[in-house]
Amino acid sequence: MAKGWNRQSETRSRTRGAKVKVKTARGRKNSSTRWLQRQLNDPYVAEAQRLGYRSRAAFKLKELNERFGFLKGANRVVDLGCAPGGWLQVLMETVKPNTQVLGIDLQEVEPVQGAKIWVMDFLSADAEQRLMNELDGPADVVLSDMANSATGHKETDHIRTMALCEAALDFALKVLAKDGSFVAKVIQGGSDSELMNRMKTHFKTVKHAKPPSSRQDSKEWFVVAQGFKGLKSEN
């Protein structure tokens, strides 16, 4: 296991106990019952509640940063798809004082002290320019946890999530400072080679990672691109 990624065993041992079984209630679908049972028996859900995080996803950012260290020394960080705010909570715990943190989401997000949150459609025509105008300077880190609502059709879900990742990368290439980092959620599949090649053109290192807190049965991965070289021609 990679250095700094031993949180999984620690979290599981801390919350080990009898497994909770959920009975199917009238009006509740079997899939909903399975989801509820998984939530009740998920050690990361319990640990998130204990620590006051809004979602178990907070541990994904913590673990990724422990491994890659992309938040160290950051002056400006943009969090795309920030609802419900777990990543913003981790950011405000981790970054240095006075770091500018800007979160964007389609949904209303409960305030996180120290972070600025915008409710907006990142894909709208004026979104990129508004965000760049808001920043005090080039961003050191662009994060994207954006994903479309699952349709149940694997190919469709993969294509839509990858399209969001591509849009986030387009933004990152315009706003990142030299040596900046781009971290985004991707869905395992066979059509992301072009996206990876684009990143390799503009970043010194590009790696896939699946943090321990990401469920093993999930197709979710993260791509971590570090050492932004600057915007160059892709032709």
Automatic annotation (TrEMBL):
Specifically methylates the uridine in position 2552 of 23S rRNA at the 2'-O position of the ribose in the fully assembled 50S ribosomal subunit. Residues 14-31 have a biased composition (Basic residues). This is Ribosomal RNA large subunit methyltransferase E. GO terms for molecular function: rRNA (uridine-2'-O-)-methyltransferase activity. The lineage of its organism: Bacteria, Pseudomonadati, Pseudomonadota, Alphaproteobacteria, Kordiimonadales. Its main location: cytoplasm. Belongs to the class I-like SAM-binding methyltransferase superfamily. RNA methyltransferase RlmE family. GO terms for cellular component: cytoplasm. Residues 1-33 are annotated as: Disordered. InterPro entries: RNA_methyltr_RlmE, RNA_MeTrfase_FtsJ_dom, rRNA-MeTfrase_E, SAM-dependent_MTases_sf. Residues 53-228 form the Ribosomal RNA methyltransferase FtsJ domain. It is found in: Cytoplasm.
